[in-house]
Amino acid sequence: MRISTFQDGTTADRESRNALHEILDSLDGRRNFKLEAGAGAGKTRSLIDTLQHILENRPEYLPREGQQVACVTYTNVARKEIINRTDASPHVFAGTIHGFLWEIISGFQKTLSQEIVTLPGWKHLLAEEGPIVDFSVSYDLGFRRIRDGVVWLHHDDIPALATRLFERKKFRSLVADRFPIIFIDEYQDTPAGLAEAMVGNTALPPIGSTYGFFGDHWQQIYDRTCGKIDHLPVTAIDKRANWRSGPAVVSLLNHMRPELPQAPVPGRNTGSVVVYQTNSWTGPRGTRSKKGQIPDLTLKETLRHVAEDSRQRNLIPRGEPLKTLMLTHSSIASELGFGKINEVFKYNDDYVRKQDDVVAFLLEILEPACEFFRTKRFGLMLETLKRSRPCMRNRSDKTGWADLFHRLDETRDTGTVGDVLDIVLEQKYFSPSRAVHDRQRKWTEGLSSLRAGEMLSEPRQIVEYGKLREVPYCEIIALRDYVEEKTPFSTQHGVKGEEYPSVLAVFGGWTRYNFPKMLADFPRSQSLGDEDRKRFERSRNLFYVACSRAQENLAMLFTTELSEEALKTLEEWVGPSNIIAVDYSPDGTPRITA
Fold it and tell me: Fewest C-beta atoms under 10 Å: which of 163, 184, 261, 545?
């Protein structure tokens, strides 16, 4: 068998070659495999190397016309990277988990309509609609609805339905006819039960496709996902080099995870790791979702002081961007100036992932159109609005467009979201989406039906729309900067797979995570009971993901109080001299002394 050429030299290179040999041996023997590798170990490199080898020897792996190797990812960014690095080969199907699953199940319409009635979340809708036997099943925006003979699926329905189908041997065989080989990147994020159904949990040779799982169970940070898959019939392959981080960060990761020791590749700068703790704060601390955390305004000032102090100590080079990772979108909203938007919505995804139709229109249509008008890129402006049927028939229309956008620009600076929406809904030059019109109509109808003194209380989307109208429009502009990653802030969940030269990771209080307790429990983690261990691993995994994003320099800021046990763990990991106390003056101003 011909192996792709690699550059000779370091141990890390040899390890990569050995990992590829093991992967190809597994594929040749039709054995499912699992490449388990810590953060920065080059899982994506191994995946791409394998894909390129398959393409170079395609008849051996894809013997029949039309067959493809499937590469399943969990983000569009990862999907695009795979497409780019395989030169958009027609023999590689690269898709997100939902895109891939819908691709293979969408043709089984009768089976889907039969299985939908057993899924959670459909009881109320089906009770209203009645039998859906002759309805078509579709999936687009991810919202459950039944309209005009079509059943529209929710995002969560896709893996649930796929799991039901994969449990059938005939379905697995049909999938294998098109996809003899299926690779799953970040396997630990696979919805619970799906990997078992795909593999079939049967003796080798497998019935169906040959699966390659690439990932790291320590980076499982989402609920209802599989995590470890050691119980499945998969051949284990390890990688222990760290291609991302310098010695200081790798040392921290090895202290956390001694059972999977990593080595930095030659030539990396040593870098730095430092911890800032806020135990000296004596004022009130947060409750509920921000339990034990220093107040938001104090946090804002502390962040600035920590960033400046880390540069003064030459821990982070001056002028170098400092990627700040925070626990929640609400903390970032407060920092970046869209806190009122965060208060409007029950679910963060409605505004961060633009699942709310009005937010999607403002961020994806109106804001880009205003930007294109302001920079005189009128062709792009009309292209952005093309779904809105832009109207420009004569010279007076041109003047009208100019007047409209000058008015919008002024209102965007000084008015509310409602002020801007009213202008958009009343003008005649382009048509906003039907969803925006519907939301405005239902909100107006809801208000008109209220008695004196009453407040609109349902449905939730209409109530949120009314609240959103009252928000200063400048917050929409700030939100767009955040969503399009034009700020140095991200959530710790949102950067898995990413890397940055210097990172400031902020570990605060939230009901789902308790970092001080996790650190205190580290020495006795193996003796924890089942429930305590689940809570421990939830915090540990997110902590590991956040710390391992740093290539050279890592600063950690703990905004909740650290116990003596937690501090002792950190001292063992980074050394006492690298733990710095943030002091506070009587008026709450943070100060850091050398």
Answer: 261
Runs of H (alpha helix) within 147-189: 157-166, 169-178
- CB of 398 closer than 8 Å to CB of 476: no
Q: Where are the beta strands (DSSP E) in 216-307?
A: 235-239, 241-242, 263-264, 272-277
Specify the 3-state DSSP secondary structure of 325: strand
Residues 6 or more apart in contact with residue 529 via CB below 8 angstroms: none
In angstroms, what CA-CA distances link 260 with 23, 239, 240, 241, 488?
20, 9, 7, 10, 31
> Rounded to the nearest 10 degrees, how much is the dihedral formed by the CA atoms of 105, 106, 107, 108?
60
The pLDDT of residue 6 is 30
Return the DSSP state at 376. T
Identify the residue with better confidence: 314 or 60.
60
pLDDT of residue 1: 34
- 3-state DSSP assignment of residue 210: strand
* Beta bridge mates, 96: 73
Residue 580: in which H helix or E strand, if any? strand 579-581
Distance CA 388, CA 384 (A): 8
Residue-wise pLDDT for 404-423, tens only, equals 999 999 999 999 999 999 99
Rounded to the nearest angstrom, the gap between the alpha carbon of residue 124 and the centroid of all alpha carbons in its chain is 30
The secondary structure element, H or E, covering residue 150 is strand 150-152
Compute the distance between CA of residue 254 and CA of residue 245 in angstroms, rounded to an integer: 12
Taking the C-alpha atoms of residue 274 and residue 555, their distance in angstroms, rounded to an integer, is: 5
> Rounded to the nearest 5 degrees, what angle is found at the Cα of 293, between the Cα atoms of 290 and 294?
130
Collapsing DSSP states into helix, strand and coil, what is residue 239?
Answer: strand
